[in-house]
Amino acid sequence: MLRKKSLLALLLSLCMVVGILPATVFAAGQYVPENPRWSGYGNQVMWDKPANASGSTYLEYEAQLVLNGQVLQTESVEIDRWVFFDSKNITQSKDAYTLKVRARQIYLTGDPDGSYTVWKRDAWGDWAIGGNTGGGEGPTPPHEHSFGGWKNNGTQHWKECSCGEISEKSPHNFGEWELIYYDVNTKYDVCERRCLTCGYEQIDQYREHQHYYTDDWSSGSTTHWKVCYYCKEVNQDTVADHTFGDWTITKEPTTTETGSRERTCSICKYTQEETIP
Q1: Residue-wise pLDDT tens digits, 95-142
Q2: What is the CATH number of the domain that holds 119?
Q3: Which of 107, 131, 155 corresponds to the end of one domain?
Q4: CA-angle at 47, arms to 43 and 51, nearest 5°
Q5: Which pLDDT belongs to residue 62?
Q6: Sign of CA dihedral 267, 269, 270, 275
Q7: What DSSP string describes 49-105?
Q8: Which residues, listed in sequence order, are joined to residue 49 by a DSSP beta bridge?
């Protein structure tokens, strides 16, 4: 009789323990996704797996795009944790929208990474809220502008926020023209210059050719001159007779062989040679 009473007391104790356990342990649909957010890739929304879901727990998710309390689009996905919303439903800055995601456990047979069949679905859990958590039911948080890098066209540059606000708009601040190459067909210089602020490149294919004379001399037997490095035109102002120094004997003549001597122009370094009888 004592053993029966002890067993009855044990069963009553177990019932009391079960009765005080949190209901969420046994309730279906107890999984709540975490951190719904825009991924930054197009109109993709993503979220994290519920913290209490194990690696062998497979979930179905339902995501909603909400603006001012109105559901604009609902998408469902199994196992994956992302969806894409249609561009036609996103007409304002993404900060204006509320993102809602909920989850429920699914039971399947087959390969979760390939072909599988769902044979049971639990009830949906609570919604996780992301994006503009006001959801149109309260004041929308003020938008903070975030201006990215420079944008430009042929005449000016500016910075632009994702909401369309323009900042720092001004004309280009170009540096000096720099020669890219000389076009032998058109006889013009092809040049470029860059905006010192945004880096925009402007190219002019028909700039009047500017001669560039190097320190190198060209020479003939009697005169020397300089030519343009690009178009090879002779600079007539540099054409002049050689300025020779004294003769230097390079080989003494003999009774059987002739000798030789040379002298060098002090300007262009042209060397003239002669035979000594």
Answers
A1: 899 999 999 999 988 888 888 899 999 999 899 998 764 434 444 456
A2: 2.60.40
A3: 131
A4: 180
A5: 96
A6: positive
A7: PPTT--TT-EEEEEEEEEETTEEEEEEEEES--EEE--GGG--S-GGG-EEEEEEEE
A8: none
